[in-house]
Write a structure and sequence with these properties.
This protein is α/β, with parallel strands linked by helices. The chain is 36% helix and 14% strand.
Length: 340
């Protein structure tokens, strides 16, 4: 972390992170560095707009986490000295408005720290779908006889399998490295992936239709934009071969959930899903009862190590500000639409 600012300059920093997340995000060492560098105001009830507003006057930096109030004109009216909003996650769009940028306030996010754990979960999903682990687990837990529980569609190894990746994002690239190390053949659909980048990644750049029609597993890693909304719908899912699997650890925004449910209910495809249109996922949702679906509750980036890196990244940005250094992970107003 950057050198500490002058101890005489006790700049105020507001930490709008609830106790449970503070314990996960900030190690004792990281928290001590922040305490030594600034006068801290901690907002336990971080989703309470009034509480955050009351803490902002005189503060130079605001550290936010999930479910914090959006920093809009009303909240900014209390922020007479604010220079930085440091978000401990990757999706900053729900937490800041364009007014923040118009006032020259810096915005940072910690999304780079999520790429590896999310890629690892996507790999775990991939292996589970290829080997039908979820189907066996569902059958045995459901009380099926051993012989019946042993029945499943054909299983495959990842070595030599065609894996399709939608989006060469930072998470997509981390996933590509993992599956390629295990011997997969990887095709990628990304309008911004150059031929040189594809060659460097060791992948083949292909149109979406080609990728869907030939891949045993399709992993979604595209960003959230107007163009990617429901980019995987009924027409696209119909292109996937019988027995193929869809992995989504990105956003439900990218997949037409109703179309996916219809395809899964027919049993033609398998899926592993970490993100949903409605979260928490309703207890009566049909996904919960399907034997060909593996579900996790939006926890792909929930590793101990990742949470601690998220906190360290946000604190580092605050310390850089107080020491007069530029941020490392700044978000521009133009990029705001891509960081949902």
């Amino acid at each position: 972390m950057p050198g500490s600012p002058d101890p005489a300059d006790r700049s105020r920093v507001v930490v709008a992170v609830p106790p449970d997340l503070r314990a996960q995000f900030f190690t004792a060492e990281v928290w001590r560095e922040l305490e030594q560098a600034a006068e801290l105001t901690v907002v336990d009830d971080h989703s309470d707009r009034a509480a955050v507003a009351a803490a902002l006057p005189g503060a130079r930096a605001l550290v936010t986490s999930w479910r914090a109030p959006r920093v809009d004109s009303e909240l900014l009216s209390h922020a007479d000295r604010l220079e930085l909003v440091a978000h401990t996650g990757s999706a900053v769009a729900p937490y800041v408005t364009e007014e923040v940028f118009r006032r020259g306030i810096l915005v940072t996010q910690a999304g780079d720290e999520m790429a590896r754990p999310v890629a690892e979960v996507a790999l775990a999903f991939t292996l589970s779908l290829l080997h039908r682990v979820h189907r066996f687990d569902h059958a045995l837990r459901g009380g099926q006889e051993w012989a019946a529980a042993s029945e499943a569609p054909p299983r495959h190894e990842i070595h030599g399998s065609d894996i399709g990746v939608i989006g060469a994002s930072r998470t997509g690239r981390a996933y590509i490295a993992l599956v390629r190390a295990m011997g997969a053949r990887v095709g990628v659909t990304d309008p911004y992936l150059s031929d040189a980048d594809a060659e460097a990644l060791g992948v083949e750049s292909v149109p979406l239709e080609t990728l869907l029609s030939r891949s045993r597993i399709v992993a979604v890693h595209a960003p959230v934009t107007e163009e990617t909304h429901r980019m995987i719908g009924a027409e696209q899912l119909a292109l996937m071969p019988d027995g193929a699997g869809l992995v989504n650890t990105a956003r439900s925004w990218l997949v037409d959930e109703d179309a996916l449910l219809a395809e899964l209910a027919r049993g033609r495809l398998d899926a592993a899903i970490d993100v949903f249109d409605d979260e928490p996922l309703p207890t009566g949702h049909p996904f919960r009862s399907l034997p060909n679906v593996l579900l996790t509750p939006h926890q792909a980036a929930g590793s101990v190590e990742c949470r601690q890196r998220l906190g360290a990244s946000a604190v580092d940005e605050v310390l850089r500000l107080l020491a007069g250094h530029p941020p490392v992970h700044a978000v521009s107003a133009d990029a705001l639409a891509r960081l949902h």
